[in-house]
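dude i think i finally got it to work??
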Amino acid sequence: MSKSRNHIHDAAWAALDQLARGPVWDGDLISKEGRNELVDCAYAKRDRRDARGLAVNELTESGKRLAAQYHHQRHANLDPDF
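look at this
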C-alpha cells in the first residue's frame, strides 16, 4: 500500500532534507525507514551499487522538486502546504 505523496512522516522529511544535499550511502542515512517511505512515494531511489554491494540513495526529479519547495517555504517562514 503506497502512501499519499502529500502525507509523509517525520522520518521521511528528515531523509528528504539529507538527500537534498546530494547522494548518501546506505550506512550514512539519517533514516532508512524515511528513505523507504520516499522510495515508496517515488521521491527517492536506491541504486549505483559498488563492488562491495553498497547502495547509494538519491532523490528522483520529483523528490528534488519537493525538497526545493519544502526548503523555500521553510526559509520563508511559511507553513508548508503539503
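Helices lie at 10-19, 32-40, 61-75.
im so relieved honestly
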